[in-house]
């Protein structure tokens, strides 16, 4: 089951990902960005195939630049990452 976490600002969401030691996908306007634990090079959303997207441990979606941001973590995301993101979210 996916877990959804909300952040008031993009910066607070990015700080939570750094604290959880996660990699964030490459910025592509307002498209979603992939999340993977540890050190990964995550491609832009448009360059990820459906199977690549299914392998991601989470999805990062901002509403506007430095605005409200949502992080959705998938069920196969490591529990320690979920715990850190949950602690840092609203």
Low-confidence spans: pLDDT under 50, at least 5 residues?
A: none
- What's the Cα radius of gyration? 12 Å
Q: Which structural class should the secondary elements be placed in? A: alpha+beta
Shape: globular
The pLDDT mean sits at 95
The count of helical stretches stands at 3
Please give the domain count.
Answer: 1
H and E string: EHEEHEEH
How much helix, percentage-wise, in residues?
25-40%
- Name the beta content range: 25-35%
Major sheet attributes: 5 strands, antiparallel
Task: Say how many strands there are.
Answer: 5
Strand order of the largest sheet: 1-5-4-3-2
Describe the fold and architecture:
By secondary structure, this protein is of the alpha+beta class. It has one domain (3-88). 29% of the residues lie in helices and 26% in strands. The chain is built from three helices and five strands. It has helices at residues 10-19, 50-55, 79-88; strands at 3-7, 22-24, 33-37, 58-62, 69-73. The chain has a five-stranded antiparallel β-sheet with strand order 1-5-4-3-2, covered by helices on one side. A hairpin with a 6-residue loop joins strand 4 (58-62) and strand 5. The two termini are 20 Å apart.
Short description:
By secondary structure, the protein is of the alpha+beta class. It has helices spanning 10-19, 50-55, 79-88; strands at 3-7, 22-24, 33-37, 58-62, 69-73.
Q: Topology of this protein?
A:
Elements: E1 3-7, H1 10-19, E2 22-24, E3 33-37, H2 50-55, E4 58-62, E5 69-73, H3 79-88
Antiparallel strand pairs: 1-5, 2-3, 3-4, 4-5
């Amino acid at each position: 089951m996916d877990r959804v976490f909300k952040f008031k600002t993009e910066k607070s969401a990015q700080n939570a990902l750094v604290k959880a030691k996660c990699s964030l996908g490459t910025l592509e306007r307002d498209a979603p960005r992939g999340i993977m634990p540890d050190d990964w090079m995550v491609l832009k959303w448009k360059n990820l195939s459906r199977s690549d997207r299914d392998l991601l441990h989470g999805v990062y979606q901002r509403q506007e630049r430095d605005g409200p941001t949502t992080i959705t973590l998938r069920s196969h995301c490591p529990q320690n990452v979920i715990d850190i993101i949950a602690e840092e979210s609203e």
